[in-house]
Amino acid sequence: MIMLRDAVIPAGGTIPESYAQAIGSPYRALAPIGPGKCPVMQVVVNALRDSGAVRRIIGVAAEPVAEAISGVDQWLPVSDVGIDNILRGLGALESPGEPALIAASDLPFLTGEAVRKLVEQCADEEDLSLGIIRADSYQAAFLGAPRSQWVTLRDVGQVTIGGLFGVKPAVMFREAEHVKRIMS
Question: pTM, whole model, 2 decimals?
Fold first, then answer.
């Protein structure tokens, strides 16, 4: 049986003015996706819900984002600093001692199946788990997608990370200063 996890979606990202004009919003999480122009963060929320692996979803975002997205259990105000938004969301967990998920708000290809697979493969004793995708698989699946950043792993080749992470909240709080340096 799969252990249900709470999920945090930090959605504080704003975008350059030219991109904001093109999508009609300064918030990356509200970028319209597909023929129905669904906000990209709604795709993420739907995938988390469809996974059957998520108990609660906490969103950390500006009010216009919260007003546009359904299916989030709790909204928290956003900060200008990405890691602060993650920590704010993790601090609101009902069970902070249990593993949780962090999902980027702009994952247009995220599916419930992918979320479930990551949760099934995350060992509860691991401090951090993340999905990786091989460069050739990414490029074949997402023709014409923007270039990603690649890292070469000896046994796998070039890979990039996904935007969904399994974390132990206590570790994130303990290592917050290190994470801030990595993210800046």
Answer: 0.90
